Amino acid sequence: MTTLSLDQRRGRQRLLRDLTARDPRHMIARGLLIGDTVAGISFALGLAGGVAAIATGGRVWTWLLLALAAGIARGSLATLSQRIGSDLAADAKIALRTRVTAAAINQSVGGARTSGELACTIVDEVEAVDGHIARFAPIRTAATLSPLIVLAAVALASPVSALILIGTLAPLIAALILAGGAAAERSRQQFGALARLSGLFSDRLRALPLLLAYRATDRERVRLGQAADEVAVRTMGVLRVAFLSAGALEFFAALSVALVAVYAGFNVLGLLPFTPPEQLDLFRAFLVLALAPEFYLPFRRLASAYHDKQAAETAADRLLALEADAEPVRPLEVHSAPALAFDQVSLRHGSADADAVSALSFHVEPGETVALLGASGSGKSSLLGALVGTVPVREGTIRIDGRALESGLAVAGSAAWAGQAPLLVPGTIADNIALACPCSPREAVADAAEAAGLAELLRCRAQGLDSLLDGRGSGLSGGERRRIGLARALLSEAPLLLLDEPTAHLDAEAEAGLTTAILHACRGRTAIIATHSETLAAQADRIIRLERRYEAA
Ligand SMILES: Nc1ncnc2c1ncn2[C@@H]1O[C@H](COP(=O)(O)OP(=O)(O)OP(=O)(O)O)[C@@H](O)[C@H]1O
């Protein structure tokens, strides 16, 4: 069983409270539910008055009109409260998704959560706060005030009946607390299973072509089936506890209504085996009988919404854990070609045992083009990654225009970066090239595509720049995908240009053409080009050679 610290509990309560705290509709929804109780009391009064009037030959219609008006008010107030609650929940989910998405984006590179699990958190787990805000929160307030109001009304008519109601409350609350504790743990297990299934499903979906090619679909189907079975088992566990708590509540509610009914009926008929401290007439007896279920109604509503509370608390714990693991990246902005200084810099990837780069020092002047040359694994990409915030600096300092690139700071927003595996999104080739500068004119996109060596590809496609790509870049060679990333960097006017092996896998003629375009793009900005090509490196202002060395610290 997972035990949470006091701080974690407080954090979770704060998160759930803050979602609606500043919204006045929150109080309106609660007020309406309490109004619903008052309408319930009026309804009981109308019924009791009507029955007494029939027995005594009084004015039945007045009482029945009161019951009718109260009945209509009652339905409307509860519905309105629910509607306001749903609107509040919708707004709260938008706010929470914004917050959780930011935390998901800022998860450290190579973190433990898969993208499928993150998607499950943003979509499903945020959804779990809906019931808490829309139903549970207003019902909880009503459940503390409404029974007191009903109890006062019952006590006015029959103090003994009020005492019976109080007496039956203790076992009911105990049943609720016991069921609540069990539900919390089961709810946590259900969320964990659901996140595992979502993660597995989306990751396998992404790898579907590979799974088909390697005929691994049967194996993965079994694995997905097991994960789905686990969700089913956990969900049944949650439902079992929910039904059990509802059953216990109904039992005690029915028992106490029966006790009140027996007492009030026998009191009116004078059949009690002892002398009662009060003598009820038909009106008062019927009134307490009609009010007894009203006393339990808020608790029954609370029990039916209790699962919403557990689900929201589990979701809140997971969302807070996600936020705790996030490392927000703050932008370090530069507006003109910056000077870069690497001082005894050691870089190490999160999961690695050795440094990718050890105690490296060099300077780059503003507007200078530097080529990083070195064997595979010597740390060229890692150096570029450190600048854009994807690789942590273990030791030493990187300065940009004299400002230290501290943990959490990244110059990515001011850099044009073409990595070895550029991100592609579903859309046209033009959309993908203009990803970082969506307002770029069409001619500029076409020029960047041409400069990056995409002319031949575009000629072969009937729709040219408007040819559609999926998120995997299916139908493009690895080199073409890379050139789309390069075109994106060439299109950008960012003052820092970071290129990772821009001419890899090209023949000499293509490389020469691309080199000219790259050097043209480097003009007026500070550029670092990681490359294996001596030809390209020779065109740079300066070459920095990296040596491959593994050094565990
Ligand atoms: N995500 C990662 N997690 C752990 N270690 C990594 C990761 N990425 C790279 N490394 C390690 O860091 C070292 C430097 O890798 P890097 O990719 O920076 O080299 P490179 O010079 O760019 O290589 P290449 O020329 O093959 O692209 C290598 O030893 C590599 O194994």
From TrEMBL:
SUPFAM superfamilies: ABC transporter transmembrane region, P-loop containing nucleoside triphosphate hydrolases. One of its GO terms (molecular function) is ATP binding. Residues 32-311 form the ABC transmembrane type-1 domain. The chain crosses the membrane at residues 32-54, 60-80, 139-157, 163-184, 241-262. Residues 340-552 form the ABC transporter domain. GO terms for cellular component: plasma membrane. Keywords: ATP-binding, Membrane, Nucleotide-binding, Transmembrane, Transmembrane helix. Gene3D superfamilies: ABC transporter type 1, transmembrane domain (1.20.1560.10), P-loop containing nucleotide triphosphate hydrolases (3.40.50.300). Pfam families: ABC_membrane, ABC_tran. GO terms for biological process: cysteine transport. It comes from the Bacteria. It is found in: Cell membrane. CDD domains: ABC_6TM_AarD_CydD (cd18584), ABCC_MRP_Like (cd03228). PROSITE patterns: ABC_TM1F, ABC_TRANSPORTER_1, ABC_TRANSPORTER_2. It is a multi-pass membrane protein. PANTHER family: ATP-BINDING CASSETTE SUB-FAMILY B, ATP-BINDING CASSETTE SUB-FAMILY B MEMBER 6. This is Thiol reductant ABC exporter subunit CydD.
